Amino acid sequence: MIEKKLLTLAGAAGILLCGACFLPPLPQHPPLPPPVRRGLEGVREIRVEVANVSKSFHLGVSALAVEVADIVSAQSHGKIKAHTSKEAGDGDAVLRIEISSEKATRVPGPGESETWYFEIDASATLTRSDGNVIWTATDQRIFLSEGFPRPAPADAWDDREAINRLQAVIGSRLVFPMLYGQ
After folding, report:
1. pTM of the model
2. CA distance 45 to 72
3. Is residue 32 part of a domain?
4. pLDDT in the model for residue 9
5. How many domains does the chain have?
6. Dihedral pair phi/psi, residue 52, rounded to 5°
7. How far apart are CA 115 and CA 136, in angstroms?
8. N or C: at which end does the chain have fewer Cβ atoms within 10 angstroms?
9. Per-residue pLDDT of the chain in tens (182 residues, 90 and over written 9)
10. Distance (Å, rounded) from C-alpha 91 to C-alpha 69?
11. What range defines the domain where residue 51 resides?
12. Which residues of 30-49 are buried (b: 16+ CB within 10 A; e: fewer)?
C-alpha cells in the first residue's frame, strides 16, 4: 500500500518537474461571428448605392456609400465584400439606401455645452443580381445626439466629425439587421 502511495507521489513530482504545470497558456481564440442571415447564402460581393431624396440634401451620398461598404465588409468578418463602384459590377447583390429626410435640432445644454439632435429617415433594400429581394427595411428612423462645447457650430451639418459619426450610425443601424436579422 505504501508502495502505491510512493509511486503516485513520485509520478506527481515527475509531472511537476517535467513542466506540465508550467506550460505556456493555451492560445485564446476570438469568438466566432454570428452566422449571416438566411437568404445571403452565395452572396460574396455587394455593391452599395445611396440616394438622398430629402429636401435639405445635407448627407453626401458617395461618402455615406463608402462608409456603409466599409461596415458591411467589417461586420461580415470578411465573408462579404462591399464596394461602391459601378465599374466593378453589381457583384452578387446590390444594397440600395434612400435617405428620405434629415433634420438637425439645436438644444442648449447646461453649462458650457450644446447638443445637436440628428434625425434621419432611411429605407434600404438588398436585391440579388437575379432581381430577388433578400432583405428590406422601410422608414427606419435613426437618431444621433452630438454634444458640442460652446460655442457649438451654427450649422451641425458643417461639422465633419459629427457627420462622420452620423454616417457610421446610419450604416451600422442598417447593415447589422441586414446581415444578422432583426
Report:
1. 0.77
2. 10
3. no
4. 79
5. 1
6. -115, 105
7. 32
8. N
9. 788 887 787 777 777 666 655 667 778 877 766 667 777 888 999 999 999 999 998 999 999 999 999 999 999 888 899 999 876 666 889 999 999 999 999 888 777 788 889 999 999 999 998 899 999 999 999 999 988 876 777 888 988 999 999 999 999 999 999 998 86
10. 13
11. 42-180
12. eeeeeebbebbeebebbbbb
The answer to whether 44 and 78 have CB atoms below 8 angstroms apart is no
Q: State the pLDDT at residue 6.
A: 79
Query: Using H for helix, E for strand and C for coil, what is the string for 164-181?
Result: HHHHHHHHHHHHHHHHHC
Cell representation of residue 110: 447646461
Quickly tell me which residue has 513530482 as its cell: 13
List C-alpha distances in Å: 181 to 11, 47, 103, 144: 54, 20, 27, 22
In a domain, 28, yes or no: no
- Is residue 8 a part of any domain in this protein? no
| Domain of residue 80, CATH code | 3.30.160.150
